[in-house]
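Q: What would this chain look like folded?
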Amino acid sequence: MRISLGTRITLGVIAAVVLVIMYVPLLVVLLNSFSTSASLSWPPPGFTLEWWGRAFISEGAMAAVGTSALVAVISAMLSLVLGTLLSFALQRFSFFGRSTVNLLVILPIALPGIITGIALNNLFRTIMGVPLSIWTVIIAHTTFCIVTVFNNAIARMRQMGTNLEEASADLGAGIWTTFRLVTFPQLRSALLAGGLLAFALSFDEIVVTTFTAGSGVKTLPMFIIDNVSRPNQAPIVSVIAVVLVLVSVLPIAMAQKLSGSEQQRR
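A: My prediction, written as structure tokens:
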């Protein structure tokens, strides 16, 4: 399809405006993390590394980073197991209600976070009588992180087909041998990309976390919200926000690279 010069220029201008609106505020946050001012003022009166040093010796900030990382790692691991099993069940087997189950698996990522948070809060506290803790946060994060692994895995399985698995079975290999030697090598990059996306999705989640975290649980996004309006904490919060952006962007970039490399190989 050919696009006229005027249309290309218009689309380019619109894309540039959207990118400026998205990324200039992030640049402002980055510059404020080096500002000599103790408040979020613009333009910065000067630049210093003092706030970066304070952020990395702050017990509250480091504890929040550790909590977010722990929740994200465990949620991603659980999502890898459950998402892979679900993709196998829904792609390799036919049964009554399969399309409904498929919708229910994908639905948590489409629901507003506040709805998911309220529902899980009621489940844990009212129905099950379970006190809110870091484990309720992990379970809550897993419910929507599964979707990223599931989508990646089922898309790859549709591309793979079943020819190699059937040939392996014809040669006498069992289910687990076929999975280990035939299926998993083909799924590996898709699962890794899904796991990285799940980690990034969990690490910066705030809405669901707020409704499912106990009083002693403080993730990094919660730490930022609690401290952004406190005196002399704004620059430290800017530092933590920059770290949060980097931790979120790197897994997504790696997942995109893995997906692109696999497509080129195919």
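The first helix runs from residue 5 to 32.
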